[in-house]
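Weekly puzzle thread! Below is a chain. First person to post its structure in token form gets bragging rights.
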Amino acid sequence: MKKFLGILLVLVMCMQVGSNIPMGYAEEMRADKAAMVNGRVTQAEPAKEKISLAGIEIQVFSSELDRSISAADLEVYNSTYEFSIFCDEGGNYSFVPPSKDYAIAVNLTSLPERTGITEEVTLLKQGEKLPEIGLCPIARVTAQYDEGQMVARAYASDGTELHALCSESEMDTGFAYLMKDGVSTRAVSASMEGIRNLESVSKGMQINVNGVCVDTPHVYDLSKMHLSERIDLLYSLNILSEDERRALYCDLTTLTSEESGLPCGTELIRELEKNREGNKEASDEKGDTILRSHVGPYLKEGLMNVDIGSGNYYYQIHYEAGTGGPDASVLASVVTAVRDVHNFFVNHGFRAPRKPTGETYYHIYLISGLAGYAGATVKQDVTANTAASYIELKFDLGEQYGTVTNQVTNVFKSTLAHEIFHAISYTYRDSMPSWFSESFATWAGLRYAADGSVADGYVSQYLPDTSVSPHDMEKDSLMQYGFCVFPLTLDMYNGGISTIRKIIEATENTSNGYTAIQKGIEAANQSYTMAGEAFNHCSLHISKPTVFYTMATSGWGEASCVTRSDTESYTVTGDAFTSSRHGYGQISSVSKTLSISVRRNAGVLGTGLVRIKQDGTTEVVAPASSTNSLVTYVIHNYGTTYRKVIFSLVNGSTSADNLNCTVSSTVN
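Winning reply:
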């Protein structure tokens, strides 16, 4: 009979995991000694005489067969902690087993220093002999950072991989910088040229595996980052000061959007605006120029009013008049787009953008050669919680409009909808985090243009590392735009645009993005009652691109996966609203059964989700069993019908570092 249990030991890859259950085995239990079972922790030579085994904790779990699972070749157990016993100096221990089937596990926090164990948790039936548990000195430790996550492993002298706990700490050595010419330096110039030529930044780290330490650098690769991303990263690492960051932001506005990596300049201008308000005595002519109030950006300015219906001229478009400017047919296309975007959102119940005090129109400026970003929505009252604004839009031949078609492009329509949605949002509240503002505005552009390709570049920034929390997206100017996949999930699968409207309306009473999403979902009265549940649903779809949203394109790719072996244990941690994907793959002529279990700490809201890729299509698989702490998935015909499995772990909680679980898999 094949068996599987999800009470599993943690490989040394974990950060700070361990069972700390204070209960002890009650010695006063009166039981016939014949009913007791005897176990032993053994030592490998030559350390047998050097290590005392007294105090090693053996945890005992009662395990009950889940009879709701009707699989002839599989037994799935739900397990409950019962008690702990402790080894004597020789490693011996005894206990009266539970009346049901049971499992034993070693508490890794109780192991002697510089040692690890080889065996995983063992499931036993009444009358079965306890297996010996091997304790070995740690002979070697390896450690490296993979996609920002530390992965450490410990080995015995014969190469056997050991289970133990580990932690990491920064070494007080400062940062090291690698430049494009291969030169390594201990300092970097806070100039655009210095940032442009920077390849990587590294910080020394020490990894401690149960008392055995190894030093390894944590390397931040900047080679594929846009300049804005580099500036944000260096600022988050406290390498750049606030003044240096602001000066570099000013320099970004002189670059093209391709160089700077800023598709939307709203957050850039807001940062400069806030800094100027906080430092009114500081003179910054460049910053003041950027934050100008428009009186017309051209010597020969043309004006055109937009009728949004029934003779209501709501917007006024400012454009370059005369030679070199857009012709009348192109401008007519702009007017149509502005009218359509306005009515698209207003007819769905959103407020219209607020006109500046004393103004007849809301102003939109079409700016030829606008550098640094494709569009920006500039708030005109920095002291108000809600405020009027105006919009700048890049308007160059080719990207934004064509002379052959005499029409604006989908890129322009998407940018226009993105910026108008910012202006709409300002009528509710202007103090939302940038990840919230930009992800929902990018959703608006994608939703209106009905063209997934306009978001290809943004989404491709998010999918490779879905373990980055929205809060940390503030440090990555492109990733927060790619997080539009979440509001798109809310739209497509949780009530439509009305749910998005409820979320934006909820911002009137909170500046917390998570809270606004939660309250908006509740107000929409949809099937999901928690923001985390909706994010879990999002994680399903970014795991299976073949059936991604109707708006998606092949350019969106697939969310990254960590390749795992079929018989591996590992630990997963995650900040708020993060997901981690793990891929299993096998091609076999013999049908196998893959079992994956995830054990979550009490109160953790992280949820495991499995999807199977079958001949290019995908399926969602429900858990075979689930308790408060243990979820088990079973995939039959693994290796034949189903050759790839993507296992997704999600922290749908709004609390940081709330995803903390261990995963193990077996194949039979």
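Puzzle host: Confirmed. Bonus trivia for everyone else. The chain has 16 helices and 31 strands.
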